[in-house]
Amino acid sequence: MQASISLAGLRRRFASMLYESLLLLGVLSVSFMLPHLALGLAYEIVLPGPVLVLHVFLVLGAYFVWYWHQHGHTLAMQTWKLKIVRADGEKPSLNQLLLRYLLSWPSLLFYGAGLIWAVVDRDRQFLHDRLAGTRIIFVPPTTTSTRPPAGK
Fold it and tell me: Is residue 89 in some structural domain?
């Protein structure tokens, strides 16, 4: 791993996850609740539970994997100055990001065991990051000077 990379702390990552959950309410409202509400009201169609769960899984997968692949972070992660990288500090492959997304579900659904894993992990990484070969790093803000150059 590169020397300039600083792994993100647990508090920052959990705060980002909390903020992400608020943002996901909007994502799911537009892409999930509105279409299904329209189907129910207009045509009295209610899709079975497994189809609804699959829809949520696919919508969230598209959201996370697209943002991770395009930008290295989601909107919440950007706010908290976090970025996903490979273990060597480079940009993760699409396959790694898909694997990370797939592994994050059991990591969360088994009573958060994959998140609790970070307490005993030597690098404080979540289990799904460890297995996918990714890391969440802290990206310090860049300092830009607003002063004009000397002599002008």
Answer: yes
